[in-house]
Design brief:
The structure is a single chain. By secondary structure, this protein is of the alpha/beta class. It has a single domain, classed as NAD(P)-binding Rossmann-like Domain (Rossmann fold). Helices cover 40% and strands 19% of the residues. It is built from seven helices and nine strands. The strands form two sheets. The protein has a seven-stranded parallel β-sheet, with helices on both faces. It is globular and about 45 Å long. It starts with a strand and ends with a helix.
Length: 212
């Protein structure tokens, strides 16, 4: 399979790239990045991309499955408008081109609690994106909705505190369903699902991701 990835330089995206490069079922991996990733591998193709000029890379959006790991925080984006553009508009436009170019499968990394009816901006944004993706008609659409992610060497204080609290509660047998997931494990599950899920729309949340 030939895999395409946006969001390849984020924590999960980096782990996914490395996972796909090691997997013999993936014969090629194409990453669309604003700046070089620094990764060198015979299976890897790097497409330097201006996502505000998607027409310049349209011809290279060809493959069997594409993974959307693109996302940012409100703090990093600087405003809700900019976060909406990165988390919603760019993946949606990429999806439309991928579908038009005959890419049959899509794996979308979303978030637990995502809903188009949520009163929380982030959750509503992710939920609206899920609904738009469902309407594009991919042969196979797989939506992952994990909870707290454990990123290697994270500098996000909130993540560290949340992970410690949830980890402690897990040892007591409380809210095990919400146990944090290392991005390396999430990447392994993302890489696996196109090979084992049937055609159609699949939404997988929290502890079910661990079971794949």
């Amino acid at each position: 399979m030939r895999a395409l990835i946006i969001g390849a330089t984020g924590a999960t995206g980096k782990d996914l790239v490395n996972t796909l490069l090691r997997d013999p079922d993936y014969t090629g991996v194409v990453i669309f990045v604003r700046r070089t990733s620094g990764i060198h591998h015979p299976k890897l193709t790097e497409v330097l991309s201006d996502f505000d000029k998607m027409d310049l890379i349209e011809g290279q959006i060809n493959g069997d499955v594409w993974f959307s790991c693109l996302g940012t925080t409100l703090k990093t984006a600087g405003s809700k408008e900019k976060q909406w553009h990165i988390d919603y508009e760019i993946p949606l436009e990429f999806a439309r081109i991928a579908k038009r170019n005959g890419v049959g499968q899509m794996v979308l990394l979303s978030s637990y609690g995502a809903s188009p009816h949520s009163k929380v901006f982030y959750s509503r944004m992710k939920g609206e994106l899920e609904e738009k993706m469902k309407g594009l008609g991919f042969e196979k659409l797989i939506i992952f909705k994990p909870g707290l992610l454990l990123r290697k060497d994270t500098d996000r204080l909130g993540e560290k505190i949340s992970a410690s609290v949830i980890g402690f509660l897990n040892t007591l047998g409380i809210i095990r369903k919400f146990r944090p997931m290392p991005t390396a494990i999430l990447a392994e599950k993302l890489a696996k699902v196109p090979k084992v899920y049937a055609n159609g729309v699949h939404v997988t949340e929290l502890d079910r991701i661990f079971e794949i």
